[in-house]
Design a protein that fits this description.
The complex is a heterodimer of chains A (239) and B (128). Chain A is an alpha/beta fold and 239 residues long. Helix content of chain A is 28%, strand content 33%. Chain A has seven helices and 15 strands. The chains are: A alpha/beta (239), B mainly alpha (128).
Chain lengths: 239, 128
């Protein structure tokens, strides 16, 4: 397996805070700093044309606050808020940030944030046959109505989670089963299937088109959540 | 022998921040002196001109830097002043608090400068 290299940018109007974060990134050996910005407007321009994995983002900055910057993004990378106040915790929760770091940031606490980012990233390697359980794993068996129903992964269009149930959609079948998104994701080929929303996993080979935060598979509109948009965009072969 | 921060600074916090890595401390102290020190006259100017919004903005921007150089007491006083900015009409009502900060800065900034020199000397004394 290849080590995950996390590509980040750092945004803070205080250069001292940027300096320590940049040094921690270098020290970790796991993080590539694609840019440091003390002007949030410049960071926003960078993010319009570059896909990155995570942003270390100060909240209170002149001109554009961290939250205003998030509102203007067309996709949402993983966000680590950095602030000397705890007042923003509730708003941070609403923005589904990956972590919230209170200054001064220690190296140990920084590494915990890096671990959290890694946990949300799909490894950028395709598991080999052995890891996938060998040949024959292109089909899955779904327990439904007291029987096991075979479904080819190639035919599976997408999976929708509804409460404690999961609906598997193919071109000619809809199978409902008692399961969780997590357990389904563990069974599917991560090279093909991608979680695009808390309730949807899609077969990336079946996506017909994407507009804003919605994708289309076989005529069905599927929402892409802000927190999953970055990974969706990374997985597409965009010209 | 590991690096010992000056007892005049919050050395417990500095040990926690830079444990085993004085090279990072050197870079951060250097950034503080390059970036934060030159803003201090501006802070005083905003205070004297009673420009509350600019004063508050600058306090907010620079105060985390004090945490990273072991000036926790100045950070706390700056935080208190920043919070009070929301509830006052004029900065003049913060005169006592601000003068306290200025006095502390006068005492502690030379300590920070000395610490950077110590860190530089330490780095050249280390093998490799």
């Amino acid at each position: 397996m290849k080590t995950i290299n996390i590509k980040v940018i750092l945004i803070d109007d205080d250069l001292v805070s940027l300096t320590i974060l940049e040094n921690f990134c270098r020290k970790s050996g796991r993080v590539e700093v694609a840019g440091t910005f003390n002007d949030p407007a410049q960071a926003l321009d960078f993010l319009k044309t570059n896909i990155i994995d995570a942003v270390f983002l100060d909240v209170e900055m002149p001109g554009l606050s961290g939250f205003e910057l998030l509102d203007r993004l067309t996709y949402l990378p993983r966000i680590i808020l950095t602030t000397s106040k705890t007042d923003y915790a509730f708003t941070a929760f609403q923005y589904e940030v990956t972590d919230y770091l209170k200054k001064p940031i220690t190296y140990d606490r920084f590494i915990r944030s890096i671990n959290k980012i890694e946990e949300t990233m799909t490894p950028s390697v395709i598991p080999d046959k052995e890891e996938m359980g060998g040949a024959g794993q292109k089909d899955i068996f779904i327990r439904s109505d007291g029987k096991l129903v075979r479904l080819s992964m190639d035919d599976l269009l997408y999976v929708e989670c509804i409460g404690d149930y999961v609906k598997y959609i193919s071109a000619d079948k809809k199978i409902v089963s008692h399961a969780t998104m997590k357990s389904v994701m563990e069974k599917l080929d991560p090279a093909i299937f991608l979680k695009v929303h808390r309730s949807f996993i899609v077969n990336t080979r079946k996506i017909k088109d994407i507009q804003d935060n919605t994708l289309v598979i076989n005529g069905n509109l599927i929402p892409i959540s802000r927190s999953n948009k970055a990974e969706v965009m990374q997985r597409l072969n965009i010209l | 022998m590991s690096y010992q921060f000056s007892p005049e600074l919050d050395h417990a916090k500095l040990d926690e921040l830079y444990l085993g890595d004085p090279a990072i401390a050197r870079e951060v102290f250097s950034a503080f002196i390059t970036e934060t020190s030159p803003t201090l006259p501006g802070l005083q100017a905003y205070f004297l001109a009673d420009e509350k919004d600019e004063f508050r903005r600058l306090i907010h921007k620079i105060k985390p830097g004090f945490l990273y150089v072991g000036l926790t007491d100045i950070f706390e006083k700056m935080s208190a002043v920043e919070s009070r900015c929301d509830s006052i009409e004029s900065l003049h009502s913060l005169e006592e608090e601000f003068n306290g900060i200025i006095s502390l800065l006068g005492d502690k900034m030379p300590v920070v400068h000395n610490e950077l020199e110590k860190l530089k000397l330490y780095s050249v004394s280390q093998p490799g």
